[in-house]
Amino acid sequence: MGDKIPTVEEKAGEEAVRYRMLYDTNGRVYTRKISGFFQKIRRYTGLPLIVGFLLMPWFVIDGRPAMLFDLPARKFHILWMTFWPQDGMLLAWLLIIAAFALFTVTVLVGRVWCGFTCPQTVWTLMFIWAEHFCEGDRNKMMKLDKQAWNTEKIMRKSGKHFLWLLIAFITGLTFVGYFTPIRELILGFWPSMDATGFVTFDIHPAAAFWTLFFAFMTYLNAGWMREQVCKYMCPYARFQSVMYDTDTLAVHYDAARGETRGPRKPKDDYKAEGKGDCIDCSWCVQVCPVDIDIREGLQYECINCGLCIDACDQVMDKMDYDRGLIRFTSEDQLENGATHFLRPRLFGYIFAVIAMMSAFVYVVGTRQPVSVDVIRDRGARMYRITNEFVQNVYTVKINNMDERPHSYKIAVEGDGAYKIRGYRPLELEAGEVFTVPVRVSVPKEDLKSTKSVIRFIVTASDNEGISAKEDTSFIGPNK
Ligand code: SF4
Ligand code: SF4
Questions:
Q1: CB of 280 sitting under 6 A from ligand 1
Q2: Which bin fits 298, alpha (ψ -120 to 50), beta or left (φ > 0)?
């Protein structure tokens, strides 16, 4: 940042050059471009997210995309695992774990998720990069907007919107690529000519609609609305303050050191004049993407992006003052000189996240790729006595959730010599659901009561490790 620190008069002039931005009545501020420690971190935390998002739909495992939410087949493929609608609880569980992890991070370091890794922030940074690339830095942008429309302005503006639309389209395409194989999706957008000479696209209308819809939303959110999404639309911004405590690390202005703020000449003995380290240059405000003044104290709009820290540190360097007038710190640190990291609330969150994650990993790790449902026939005759045997009829539903075909054998266990009649193992295709009536009989003398508990066990013939159980009841004659 080679800019000189603007004077109060210059600052007033700059603030007059605001222009309206979608749905913010205060108008949009041209944020000053800034570099520094936290900006580097933002770049490096955003990069893996973008690369991971773009590449994931291209990976193939067992002949299908590594991550595919196959809605028509009602199957979610995540790496080597396939989830079915009956695994919906696991998805809900995963979301709860993610929410608790976010709460834990918020208690510890405030809204760093918002400032560094939230997709809204990362995509906004990409769009800002495209804007700076085409229109130059803050001063050039302001000048360009003030000048009359000419070739240069048209080229720069259209270049920016072309880049924005390109990024937005790639984003929409990639996002829909998580729901339909991405290679076919891209080929579908490839134009071809039919016999009559018309240009056609071999794409499903729903896939085309959702790609364009997400592309438009990306263009709108990251290009036009930017941090206004954080400020007005994100529900997390509204309730995150209840997770803050006095030891939460967040971006704070050190008022005891900075006040009384005011301009001064470099050689002034400002302390003798009763002034603090803040020279009231407003750089911290000019760089703020949510247009707040952190010197007024912690505000819910602040996304903890650290831009104001980088800006103020550069001002401190120019003035030859110590860095850190604005810094990541806690209220306790500022008021009492110490931050308490070991606190019950934080341990409570950490414990809850570890416990839930351990249970989740265990459940997913021991999950069987087959499920069985058993319904006892409640027809006119609940049971039948054949010679010395009692028989019940059941409907057994086997769901082969594995990626491979299997034939399944059915066994029944109980307190007696229970036997299955009339069932021969059949091969079930991958993902096939098979329903079969099954007769279970037991010698009459083995029944101790009218109602007994029995267990159906379904096992893959070629792999004893793939198995599922279901308990049901066996009804006999009144004793
Ligand atoms: S806090 Fe720092 S950046 Fe903000 S006005 Fe004061 S000196 Fe300038
Ligand atoms: S006050 Fe500072 S940390 Fe908060 S949003 Fe503005 S620039 Fe980012």
A1: yes
A2: beta
| CATH code linked to domain 370-475 | 2.60.40.10
Using the atom order of ligand 1, give the atom closest to the CA of residue 280: 5
SS (H, E, C) 142-163: HHHHHCCCCHHHHHHHHHHHHH
* Measured distance CA(58)–CA(402) in Å, rounded: 22
Q: How far is CA 2 from CA 34, 137, 139, 231, 324, in A?
A: 10, 11, 12, 30, 20
Element (H, E) at 390: strand 389-400
pTM above 0.90, yes or no: no
Between residues 208 and 381, the one the model is more confident about = 208
Structure tokens at 171: 């984003």
Task: Name the residue at shortest CA distance from atom 2 of ligand 1.
Answer: 312
Is residue 307 in contact with ligand 2, taking CB distance under 6 Å?
A: yes
Q: Is 304 in the pocket of ligand 2 (CB under 6 A)?
A: yes
**What are the residue boundaries of the structural domains of the chain, listed by start?**
31-83+118-243, 250-336, 370-475
Name the closest-CA residue to atom 6, ligand 1.
Answer: 278
What are the Cα distances from residue 287, in Å, to 35, 294, 312, 459? 10, 11, 10, 63
Ligand 2 neighbour 303 (Cβ under 6 A): yes
pLDDT tens figures, 146-165: 889 999 999 999 999 999 99
What are the beta bridge partners of residue 69? 76
Which tokens in the block code for residue 87? Answer: 């695994």
List the alpha helices (DSSP H) in 136-280. 138-146, 151-176, 182-188, 205-218, 227-228, 235-239, 255-258
Which atom of ligand 1 is found nearest the CA of 285? 4
